[in-house]
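note to self: dont lose this again. the chain is below, predicted strucutre after it. 60 aa total, dont forget to put it in the shared folder this time
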Amino acid sequence: MQPAHLSPRAALTARGFIAKWGPGGPAHTLTERVGAPAHFTDLCRLKGVAEPGNPTRHTF
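---
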């Protein structure tokens, strides 16, 4: 079952996560600095939780 706050397209399966981040996947060779933001976003999608953000786009 898909959480209501995520669109069906936003979901990521465990198989998809492993295919992307596991050995041989397209993200496997990224450095920690480059890959960390996308990895975190994918973990949020995998768990079905909204990623932290700035919904009001408030800046200083």
